[in-house]
Amino acid sequence: MIENMPAPDPRKPSAALDEARLRQQAIGVRLRQMFDEVVNEDVPDEFLEILRRADKTAENG
Amino acid sequence: MSDAPAARPSRSGSDDEGFKRELVQLIPHLRAFARTLCGDPAAADDLAQDAMMKAWDARASFQMGTNMKAWTFMILRNQFYSEKRRSWRQSQLDQEAAERTLVAVDDPEAPVALDELRQGLAMLPAEQREALILVGAGGFAYEEAAEICNCAVGTVKSRVSRARRALHGILESGSYDRDGASAGDAMRAILADAERLSTVR
Nearest-CA neighbor of A39 among B113, B87, B35, B128? Predict the structure, then answer.
């Protein structure tokens, strides 16, 4: 009978919550990894070149 | 190089040196943030360079000792949105283009989960994506992210939590556009990779 059936989700609510938290943490780790991948790239020379030129202008100005 | 005498001991000279040193250290972070806004790496570097120069030009208004990272991120973000406003047509195409480039720039060797995370991020509304990136990857406190995005702290908190829920849902259901991958595969891969990473770190 339907009323005698066990709950559809046998896990305790807290276990499900823990799992959701774990998943969010996993996404967080990935997100940081994705961002850090670019942070760890070598900075193209262009950046420093532009800054050097601007610095010269500032000195001479 | 010229053999001109070293920087004159003027007040602004030494201030500029300190400012420049700090700014140079922030370039990798500006590039990473720009990449999440633009998608296309070349456009992102243009944006990061513009922001770097804007910061340099505005150096007199920066108070040394305060958070330069948050300050430069704010400049970069403002630059991004003012460019978008200037080019209405471009902004209309932006979402579509972002999704295309996010897929196009993917390294074929990259782990599957990262690929899917990028695509999942591309599906979020821009304001949720930037809030999640700033707090979840950029290491900013909610208060700093609020300052960068020019909105209330509570707004950032709710955007981040909505973004997390949405991203989780996207990855879980496999509603990103990737042929061959069945629902939940991305989430499983992310969990497996996170486990591996956590043992390494």
Answer: B35
Q: Does B36 reach chain A within 8 Å, measured CB to CB? A: yes
> Residue B8 above 60 pLDDT?
no
Structure confidence by residue, pLDDT tens digits, A45-59: 999 999 999 877 766
pLDDT digits (tens, 9 = 90+) for B80-104: 998 876 665 454 455 555 555 444 4
A39 vs B136: CB contact, 8 Å cut-off? no
Bin B10: left if φ > 0, else alpha if -120 < ψ < 50, else beta.
beta
Which A residues 1-60 touch B at CB under 8 Å?
A: 20, 22-36, 38-41, 43-44, 46-48, 50-51, 54-55, 58-59
Across the interface, whether the CB atoms of A47 and B27 are under 8 A apart is answered yes
